[in-house]
Amino acid sequence: MGALFALLLASALAAIYSKYHSRQVFIEIQKQEKILDQYDVEWGQLQLELTTQADQSKIELSAREQLKLIMPERDKIIYLKP
């Protein structure tokens, strides 16, 4: 009878440990999913920034203000045929 009780106690402790471990794993999964969501938000922001930076008027404005470039006169432009 004592062996049966010890087996029952060991089984109960194993069930408790298993439940505890599964909760710990679930909490870790939730943390990683939250981090993944943050990366998704950051990726979206970077994509938006990329499209804004690639806008033609933004490039022209940046060339004028930061690089002090100016548009050449029409007669100074040379067109090359491919």
From TrEMBL:
Annotated Gene Ontology cellular component terms: cell division site; plasma membrane
Give the membrane topology. Answer: Single-pass type II membrane protein
Source domain of life is Bacteria
Under the heading InterPro entries, the entry gives: Cell_div_FtsL
Stretch forming the signal peptide? none
Which terms does the UniProt entry file under GO BP? FtsZ-dependent cytokinesis
Keyword terms: Cell cycle, Cell division, Cell inner membrane, Cell membrane, Membrane, Transmembrane, Transmembrane helix
Q: Which Pfam families match?
A: FtsL (PF04999)
Its annotated compartments are: Cell inner membrane; Cell membrane
Give the UniProt family note: Belongs to the FtsL family.
Q: What does this protein do?
A: Essential cell division protein. May link together the upstream cell division proteins, which are predominantly cytoplasmic, with the downstream cell division proteins, which are predominantly periplasmic.
Write the protein's name: Cell division protein FtsL
Task: Write down the species.
Answer: Methylomicrobium album BG8
